[in-house]
Amino acid sequence: MSERTPYKTDLSDEQWALVEPVIVAWKAVHPSVSGHQGRYAMREIVNALLYQGRTGCQWELLPHDFPPPGAVKYYFYLWRDEGIDQTVHDLLRWQVREMARRRADPSLVVLDTQSVHAAAGVPAESTGCDPAKKVPARKRGLAVDVLGLVIAVVVVAASAHENAVGIALLDRVAADTDTVEKALVDQGFKNAVVAHGEKVGIEVEVVARNPGQSGFVPQAKRWVVERAYGILMLHRRLVRDYEHLPRSSESRVYWAMTAVILRRLTGMAVPAWRTA
């Protein structure tokens, strides 16, 4: 790693040791065109992505002591397309669950959605208006375990019905794990999600609100997905959707959660919004 003043988002030596094996293995089969290992340190590429995710800066406004924006962008898109972002995230997630004395993959997940404004320049065909929240934007869907760790993420136009997001999430959960038996959802999800759950072997339970309660009241087990969304909002690149492709938005979620998981694994506190 080159000598420079570190940023709060930089990987510590201990954290890089957890990520390095995956990146090194990938790089070994993806040498540069000339055959060498590349001009830029892979650790600095990851540091730049974590910095951008946390601060929300534009590509061209990455600090000059990181590799050039073009190089960082190149690896972000390449790792997105080859699934390295999810591979790194999932391997670390399994370690967190192991520390909590749980199996690598869960038996229960919680599903929910979140609508966020799309930035200027985001293609109109991939955005829409959420009729319930009056937000012209994109909609994120998360499936998380009881620890609040992301099992699957889907990004679609905000005009998509909760059912479409729920079905897509169930498909990804079923494709990526063979242990999930049950999913909890709120009343925004309808019978189509329950029926699709039966097709993929996952029981879907719609958790109803207590009619006597008003305002936001955390519900047992389901509250962990709300907390996950709150944690993601500490990463300013996710406060608004800046990505041209929904798949890039999904990748941003994986990198943000990777940063969170690395801090959990190494016992570091997550920096507060006002001090980040």
Structure characteristics:
single chain; 276 residues; alpha/beta; six-stranded mixed sheet; 6 strands; 14% strand
Question: Can you tell me about this structure?
Answer:
This protein is α/β, with parallel strands linked by helices and 276 residues long. It is built from eight helices and six strands; from the N terminus they run H-H-H-H-E-E-E-E-H-E-H-E-H-H. The chain has helices at 13-28, 42-55, 69-82, 84-99, 162-176, 191-200, 223-232, 246-266, and strands at residues 108-117, 128-130, 135-144, 150-157, 182-185, 203-206. Strands 1, 2, 3, 4, 5 and 6 form a six-stranded mixed sheet that branches. Helix 1 (13-28) packs across helix 4, helix 4 runs parallel beside helix 8 (246-266) and helix 5 (162-176) runs parallel beside helix 6. The radius of gyration is 19 Å and the shape is globular. It starts with 12 loop residues before the first helix and ends in a 10-residue tail after the last helix.
Order of helices and strands: HHHHEEEEHEHEHH
Helix content: 40-55%
Strand content: 5-15%
- Ranges where pLDDT stays below 50 over 5 or more residues in a row are none
Mean pLDDT: 91
- What's the Cα radius of gyration? 19 Å
Q: What is the overall shape?
A: globular
How far apart, in Å, are the first and last alpha carbons? 22 Å
The helix/strand class is alpha/beta
Q: What is the helix tally?
A: 8
Largest sheet: 6 strands, mixed
Number of extended strands: 6
